[in-house]
Amino acid sequence: MPDADRQWVGRARRIVRARLRHWRAEGVVERAELVVSELVTNAFAHGRGVRVGLRLSRAGAVVRVEVGDGTVVTLPGERPRSTYAEGGRGLDLVAACADAWGLTTDQTRVWCELHVPHDGADR
Fold this sequence. Notes:
By secondary structure, this protein is α+β, with helices and mostly antiparallel strands.
């Protein structure tokens, strides 16, 4: 991935971190930064669109992240991976960190939801 594109991954993390702190949803900042890093990286590395979009929303205790490039997303099929492979684990990380995830109905964005804990971290 070119350095110019790589810079957008860090920018996206900073935007998400700032928005979540504004919403007082600090309890999901680390997980959100990780899933945004993976999804934005995937959009730049594998997308075919000219623009990568990031959408962040909150409804009650649920933060939703959507990332896409305007083209139809094709999820990788099941395939064996080497233990030492450098790639191919991004969506596995998203699945492990998110409370739910999938494709939007038009299949142009990957979404995930993170539940904000009610332990005082979101006040």
